[in-house]
Amino acid sequence: MQILVDADACPVKQIIVRLAKQREISVPMPHALKGSKFVYENPQARAKDLMDAFRDDTIKGVFCAIGGEDSIRILPYIDYDVIRDNPKVFVGYSDSTISHLIMNKAGLISFYGVTVVVEFGEYVKMFDYTREQVEKILFTNCTGYEIKPSKYWSKDFVPWNPENINMGKELLVDEKGYEVLQGSGVVRGSLLGGCVDVFGMCVGTEIWPSPDGWKDKILLLETSEEKMLPKDLKYALRGLAAQGILEKVRAIVVGKPQEEVYYEEYKEIYKKVLKEYHLKELPIIYNVNIGHAYPTGVLPLGSELEIDIDSKKILLVESPYE
User: Fold this and answer.
1) Topology annotation, domain 152-316
2) Class at the top of the CATH hierarchy for domain 2-121
3) pLDDT tens profile 77-132
């Protein structure tokens, strides 16, 4: 499997990844490792890497190296027909929410979670929780697979430095598991969403779905390492509500905040805003291992999920490969 390393603003100069159950070496695209200055100054080159990767029949999957805060700048250079006509695996999170929305517009299922530099490049080893989900969701028919909460979490940050290469993150027991903030029953819907921090720059662009584009979806929301203030989350949620999005979706899946900063405050914001818009019955399941908190899992955007709110269970109804 060859992999496009979408470096965005990544300074890493050499990344070689071997994926579970795949013995073929991955390769970076021509512009991916040219440094932060180059990729910042040449969004058209970054888009060309992406387009060329989709055109290349030898490339089976596209893994982002890291997020990249100005990914929105590649939009003028995207050919949606190329993506639509050459479907393949696309994986990333954070600012790669932009690319996931591009995939959604092109009609592709994509996979939210894991990057080359952070998750595959974890010192000592990849988190067991993350590895299992990569193997199960990306490499098997995962119909009926239950996405369970991680039994542990970490608030450690180990700086990228050769002297830390043997330093693993401290693990803490996560006794909370999934939390239900409101709602009940069983809901089904295809997943759509990503990093809340990124949404503001997408609204009004060609990749931002219309309110009807969110109809009957399960909305995925997670926050970045910037740890947005609770008041900013409140404004973002009100913006979604004002667009008619929150009244269209069937449920909300919320990722664990990184380092659990504002963990309780965010919960209150969700309940407050949903009450303001008379949506107190809309199910919200909280503390899901997706996005910027350690460890993260993998969720297929565009694929159908079933959430049993009362039992706090999340199931993949269909394999993304069917």
Assistant:
1) Glucose Oxidase; domain 1 (3.50.30)
2) alpha beta
3) 999 999 999 999 999 999 999 999 999 999 999 999 999 889 988 899 999 999 99
Give me the amino acid identity at 86: N
Q: How far is CA 12 from the centre of its chain?
A: 21
Contact, 100 vs 92, CB < 8 A? Answer: yes
Q: Could you tell me if 129 and 150 are in contact, meaning their C-beta atoms sit under 8 angstroms apart?
A: yes
Q: What is the mean pLDDT of residues 156-166?
A: 88
What is the Cα gyration radius of the chain? 19
β-pair partners for 313 = 308
Burial of residue 85 (number of CB atoms within 10 Å: 0-12, 13-18, 19+): exposed
pLDDT tens figures, 143-155:
999 999 999 999 9
For the chain, what is the largest distance between any 2 Cα atoms, rounded to a whole number of angstroms?
Answer: 53
Domain range list for the chain: 2-121, 152-316
Kindly state the helix (H) or strand (E) to which residue 193 belongs, with its residue range.
strand 186-195
The token pair at 140 is 């098997």
